[in-house]
Design goal:
580 residues; alpha/beta; ABC transporter transmembrane region fold; Rossmann fold; six-stranded mixed sheet; four-stranded antiparallel sheet
Length: 580
């Protein structure tokens, strides 16, 4: 990341912090007061030393009074620092909460093209791991940066009040530590950036392999996975060690310079004290200030190193937050209500990438209540057509309309609300069976949920579960079979019964006997509803009103089952390959 972009990321972070300006103001105030009180302690100690003139000439009463003052100052400082830390933690985790909320909110409005082209684990890594790393750097910055800066300025003022000459020694030598810190941190930023990228790659790989462990085991791919993970882990190890090693040079480097400053102060101060220019107590006070003046430079250099890492992580999260969302609905978009189910595709063109054509000049007119089956070889555009009907993707040419209304002029929410969709890939959320069936209709009654489950032939196996409809399912359905998961997905659509249906290989994971019963349920459900059925098993679509045979993004044949068999064309060959 270039310097300008660093500043850009920092300004974005400040906008989030600015939402909590009152907490920030209190934190800075308490940091200032606690730093000033801390700087008073060396003055008191110096005064106490000056009260010890010689043996037998010690002002114990004066020393006792000073010790009491020191005790009060230290106690008040501790309370202020405790409160400051509370405010800093609240600011940090409020900012982290806001960033995470915005990042997750953005994932909900990102176009499917982004989701399809980015590893899911890498996206998760940005929202979880990168935000955690950013939180660590931000908290360290808030905790140490303000206190450090105020301590440096306050110490400088106190030292000038005691002796200008020694102060000049400190001021002239201390900037060397900042030069050392800057030299190191500017070279570690790119290392932390690479570390964050590899960590995202690792998270994506883990998510992919754990989520598909059955396939991994089925193909005995464990050794290859271990090897690949080892390679990524080795890259992360080397990158992390390199970044950590170079960043760890900051503290000892600055401490070395600060030790030189301390030695210089001690030498000059001792010469001045020997000549009577300052008292021993003042010299003691000055040495303490030399340490206190140098210490924040060490801390700030450490903060800068950690903050570099935080900036990298924040930038990755902001990249996600700033991704172009799905093209919003037109300002004049209307709601799709009272749907009859007439669907028209007029000269539709679409491709995922410009150089690879997929659907070209597709024309189709579907009357209300028709059952339209879509068949064809893998990659011919069947699922793509469904994506276009639902506006998961927008056409690159031509027009799709529902009841004569172009879908680009309709709100996506109202369009999708009028479609019921059952996919080949089942998805169940963590929650009860009841919650999963009622996913599309949260206000459904128990009677409606049970009726939908019975219509989907899911009621019998649900009742056999430990707690019936109140059984809590784990991630992606827990221990349910693939067929049972699909029955619940079908029940979910049965509950909503929208005017148009899309069944994309909806019975692919169900046994033949259950499939026959489901087909009867589908027949009842599809009665009077426009239905699009994507199927590979041609036995499931023989009763469709019209069958569209797709190949290379075009409809090459259409008609009823009997008509297509009589044509003895591409469909007939597909049918023969399955049944003869």
């Amino acid at each position: 990341m270039s310097k300008p972009s660093k500043k850009g990321v920092f300004s974005k972070i400040m906008r989030y912090i600015g939402r909590y300006k009152y907490l920030l103001a209190l934190s800075v105030l308490f940091a200032a007061v606690s730093a000033i009180l801390t700087l008073l302690v060396p003055v008191f100690i110096g005064d106490a030393i000056d009260l010890i003139v010689s043996k037998g000439k010690v002002d114990f009463a004066g020393i006792g009074s000073i010790l009491l003052k020191i005790g009060v100052v230290i106690s008040v400082t501790a309370i202020l620092q405790w409160l400051m830390n509370i405010f800093n933690n609240r600011i940090t985790f409020n900012v982290v909460r806001d960033i995470r909320n915005e990042a997750f909110k953005r994932t909900q409005i990102l176009p499917l093209s982004y989701i399809d082209t980015h590893p899911h684990g890498e996206t998760v890594s940005r929202i979880i791991a990168d935000v955690d790393q950013f939180a660590d750097g931000l908290l360290m910055g808030l905790t140490q940066l303000f206190t450090g800066v105020i301590t440096i300025l306050g110490t400088l003022v106190f030292m000038l009040l005691i002796d200008v000459r020694i102060t000049l020694v400190v001021v002239l030598l201390t900037p060397l530590s900042m030069l050392v810190a800057k030299f190191i941190t500017t070279r570690t930023y790119s290392m932390f950036q690479k570390q964050s990228e590899i960590r995202g790659e690792q998270t994506g790989f883990i998510e992919e392999m754990v989520g598909n462990q059955k396939v991994v085991k089925a193909f005995s791919h464990e050794d290859e996975n271990l090897e690949k993970f080892g390679e990524i882990n080795d890259q992360l190890e080397k990158c992390t060690l390199k970044a950590t090693f170079f960043s760890s040079l900051t503290n000892p480097g600055t401490r070395f310079v600060n030790s030189l400053v301390y030695a210089g102060v001690a030498l000059v101060g001792a010469l001045l004290a020997a000549n009577g220019a300052i008292t021993v107590g003042a010299l003691t006070c000055f040495l303490s200030y030399a340490n206190q003046y140098a210490k924040p430079f060490n801390e700030i250099s450490g903060v800068i190193t950690e903050f570099n890492n935080a900036l990298v992580c924040a930038n990755r999260v902001f990249e996600l937050i700033e991704q172009q969302p799905e093209i919003p609905d037109d300002v004049n978009a209307t709601e799709l209500n009272d749907v009859y189910g007439k669907v028209d595709l007029d000269s539709v063109y679409f491709s995922y990438t410009p150089e690879q054509k997929l659907i070209e000049n597709l024309n189709l007119s579907v009357k209300p209540g028709m059952r339209v089956a879509i068949v064809g070889p893998t990659g011919c555009g069947k699922t793509t057509l469904i994506n276009l009907l639902m506006r998961f993707y927008d056409v690159t040419g031509g027009e799709i309309s529902v009841d004569g209304k172009p879908i680009l002029t309709l709100t996506r929410k109202s369009l999708r609300k009028n479609y019921g969709m059952v996919l080949q890939e089942t998805w169940l959320c963590e929650g009860t069976v009841r919650d999963n069936i009622a996913f599309g209709k949260p206000d459904a009654t128990d009677e409606e949920i049970v009726a939908a489950a019975k219509a989907a032939h899911a009621h019998s196996f649900i009742k056999r579960l430990e707690n019936g409809y109140n059984t809590v399912l784990g991630e992606d359905g827990g221990n349910l079979s693939q067929g049972q998961k699909q029955l619940l997905c079908i029940a979910r659509v049965m509950l909503c019964l929208p005017p148009m249906l899309i069944l994309d290989e909806a019975t692919s994971s169900i046994d033949t006997r259950t499939e026959q019963r489901i087909q009867k349920a589908f027949s009842t459900m599809m009665e009077g509803r426009t239905s699009f059925i994507v199927a590979h098993r041609l036995s499931t679509i023989m009763e469709a009103d019209i069958i569209l045979v797709m190949k290379d993004g075009n409809i090459i044949e259409q008609g009823s089952h009997d008509e297509l068999i009589e044509k003895n064309g591409f469909y007939a060959k597909m049918y023969e390959s399955q049944f003869i």
